[in-house]
Design brief:
10 helices; single chain; Rossmann fold
């Protein structure tokens, strides 16, 4: 994407009422919707689902279309990519969609205790080098962050083409005493016909063209994680 297109998208992003992007100093002082997304923004009491590392927001928008009784927020740092999800949500006149432009590490400053009902992590960077393990979005470090705003019964969904990340996450689940709900090493080789396969991201379509297997995990956090935040 050329710099001109990026600048155009950044400019248009400023016109979307469902995009929230704050400077670090502002977020630390207190994000006004933290703990109040349902009451003050969505104006309902529907479940709140996050797509972390949302990219173009395919899952955020796709699930919002399929589930009007739920609220969805895409979180990513890439504003130019996020523009696509914002544009599609506007074109479809979706009222149950929002986007937050920030680093995933700062998510806990945007969402309050027990505010979020579920997480989707779709095709994140697997951070192949061992020294970058802490940056994996399913590392213990990140799971502890999620526990600060997730409900205890919330489900974390991971879709990835990376066997390394899939195996790593299974180890994290086992070693952390988390609750594994589903593990599938080839979702398109299984008889699955729901949002797991019906909604595809840009990268997912790309990997499928190469015949790459797409893997899926669903799990809940160890209840002890939440006791630390009570």
């Amino acid at each position: 994407m050329g710099n001109k297109n990026k600048l155009q998208r950044f400019a248009e992003n400023l016109t979307f009422s469902n995009l929230f992007q704050y400077r670090y100093e502002e977020v630390i002082k207190g994000f006004p919707l933290k703990g109040r997304w349902k009451q003050d923004f969505f104006k309902n009491d529907h479940p709140l689902i996050l797509e972390l590392g949302c990219g173009k927001g395919e899952y955020t928008v796709g699930m919002a279309c399929q589930n009007p009784e739920k609220n969805f927020i895409g979180v990513d740092i890439k504003g130019a990519r996020m523009w696509r999800g914002l544009k599609t949500a506007q074109e479809k006149k979706l009222k149950n969609v929002a986007f937050v432009r920030t680093r995933i590490e700062l998510s806990e400053h945007y969402f309050g205790t027990r505010e979020v009902d579920g997480i989707w992590i779709t095709f994140p960077d697997p951070q192949i080098k061992a020294k970058k393990e802490r940056k994996r979005l399913t590392s213990p470090r990140f799971l502890e962050r999620y526990a600060r705003f997730l409900k205890p019964e919330a489900i974390i969904h991971l879709k990835t083409d990376a066997l390394l990340l899939y195996d790593y996450t299974r180890e994290v689940i086992e070693e952390g005493g988390h609750i594994l709900l589903e593990a599938n090493e080839d979702i398109y080789g299984s008889n699955i016909n729901n949002e797991i396969t019906q909604i595809q991201t840009f990268y997912e379509k790309k990997w499928l063209e190469y015949g790459t297997k797409i893997r899926y995990l669903a799990f809940q956090l160890n209840p002890e994680f939440f006791q630390k935040n009570d």
